[in-house]
Amino acid sequence: MASVLEKREARQRRHRRVRRVVRGTAERPRLCVFKSARHIYAQIINDEDGRTIVAASTLSKALPPPGERVKKTEAAKAVGTLVADRALAGGIQAVVFDRGGYAFHGRVKALATAARDRGLKF
Fold first, then answer.
1. Residue-wise pLDDT tens digits, 49-65
2. Contact 83/61 with Cβ under 8 angstroms?
3. CA angle, 92 as apex, 11 and 16 as ends, to 5°?
4. Given 17, 20, 47, 112, which is the most exposed site by the fewest CB atoms within 10 A?
5. For residues 35 and 107, is the Cβ–Cβ distance under 8 A?
């Protein structure tokens, strides 16, 4: 059975492989996703400047407090909606999606779908 360390290293290898291709620019910044066992985080990053333009997570004050019972997939949808709203308010219309080495299903897919439905173009 793979240890937690081996799983983390495998995900980081996959992420490095994805990052060789995916680059965020000023016109099309990168929407990067990170998930932990309890929370999910999304950032829109301009790699040319090395700046985070927009960020949202399940810890954001705009979302329901952690004490409320919300399924993790539903929380990911809320984060996707929040990051898309903040991006559109900041003048960002299109992004490249960086799944962070995770498989594109479950919470990652829910976040991406919610951001697309809100008007963010991938």
1. 999 999 999 999 988 77
2. no
3. 15
4. 20
5. yes
* Cα–Cα distance, 47 to 19 (Å, whole number): 11
Strands (DSSP E) contained in 1-122 are 30-35, 40-46, 51-57, 96-98
70: its two tokens? 């919300």
Distance in angstroms between the alpha carbons of the first and the last residue of the chain: 36
Sign of CA dihedral 37, 34, 99, 17: negative
Does the predicted TM-score (pTM) go above 0.85?
Answer: yes
What are the tokens at 4?
A: 């937690």
Spatial separation of the C-alpha atoms in residues 93 and 121, rounded to whole Å: 6
Q: Determine the Cα–Cα distance for residues 120 and 15; give it in Å rounded to an integer.
A: 22
User: 22 with 30: CB under 8 angstroms?
Assistant: yes
Which one, of 54, 73, 52, 71, lies nearest residue 62 by Cα?
Answer: 54
**Is the dihedral angle over the CA atoms 94, 112, 69, 35 positive or is it negative?**
negative
- Any idea which residue has 């594109």 for tokens? 104
